[in-house]
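Z., the sequence and structure:
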Amino acid sequence: MFTGIVEELGEIVAVEPSDGSVALTVRGPLVTQDAVHGASIAVNGVCLTVVDVKDEAFTADVIKETLDRSSLGALAPGSKVNLERPVRLSDRLGGHLVQGHVDGVGEIISREPGERWDVVTVSLPPGLARYVVDKGSITVDGISLTVVEAGPDRFSVALIPTTLALTTLGHKKPGDPVNLEVDVVAKYVERMLGDRR
């Protein structure tokens, strides 16, 4: 379980394809400080399992299912990625409950620069709009954000200077893909209400 508060902007060191899967090596001095084989680290919002740690970098295997359902397949050496270690039960929950399970891939539609922040509009894949509400939470590339406005096929978020400076969203442009995870609470509520009908 994660919170969507990015700890570090990491970098892809290597992408090694093998039988429909990929071994990703990611440089992240902060998140590798206490990483061990079998630990979880979220990479652009995707929960990955560490298989090796060496020289301030970790390697994780990414299976075809994950490559098909996320934007991780588009990463190349030099790509910047958002990194977060799992939350400890004793930590503050600074963002919202994030599982690291991508619900779909959206695309940056537009950026409107402001004096101190940007308003970014992102497309919503079919079927996800029912989980996205004005002032609700959504995870974009592993970043916990508050929805400014929700529409039937898109939503907008306002990015404060800290988010612009310390995450990949400061560099993304229209047309770039982003991993989306909707609020898991909304999915549970829908399931419970559906069972009552």
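The chain is about 15% helix and 40% strand. The chain has a mean pLDDT of 93.

Let me know what you think.
H.
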